[in-house]
Design goal:
By secondary structure, this protein is α+β, with helices and mostly antiparallel strands. Helices cover about 35% and strands about 20% of the residues.
Length: about 270
Amino acid sequence: MAGALRRHGANLVGVPTGLLAAAAFNDFPQPLQIRGVREAHASLFEQLAACDGASNSARCFQGYMDITFNLRALPGHGRTLAPRRFRASYLRLLKGWGYNANSREGAVLKGWVENRFGLFPTFHKKPLIHYASPTWLTYVEEKMASRFHNNTIYQQLDLLYEFCQWSITRWFYAGRRHVTLYRGVNHFLEDRPLPAMPHPRMGNIVAHLNNISSFTADRNIACEFGDYILEAQVPAAKILFFNDLLPRHPLKGEAEYLVIGGDYRLRVDYL
């Protein structure tokens, strides 16, 4: 894959994109913050600091998101309900991703990672290899769809990431830099070994992952999604979302993690 389509120089997390994309960063990760998010929403993080557990923190976060971005369904007045304008929501994006990572919702998530972390996607419906190719233009059209950009959706995702990182540090993985996660695949179109394919049965490889990918904490669940099982030591700093983060979300049941991509050292097993 052409290097120009792997990353660009600009990001909002204060680490050079080349380093952020490298396996070396994953070996020795450092905390990441999206510039200005916690400062702009200081009241949320003050409320979170007063919470006495992960579940209360999550309810506080979702209540703040509902109010700040007007995500609650408004009750109708009279006998009929007035038509409600579609409001883009981080929960709608998670739902769309759960159905199909190559959906329009998936394109928006990949576009957010591109914008905030400087990492281009490598796959959306098909491999993304050249600028101005039909596949690349489809991705750009879908990531910029006005349907999902009418409610500051990138700011919603910024807050989801920052809340996830706060929760990891406070409640879930305090003191840990890595989480062991698994991914089941049948092919290597999205997860590209560098520089060659792995041994057909097992081996240790370095692969360039799509800029956002699904993993699971349960190896048995990963086995349901493909014959190759990828095992990764994922930096906690590269986790956008995981199953236990929120009490209500549409990705329940698969112990799913959404992980920021780049070059990863992987253990590959063949079932």
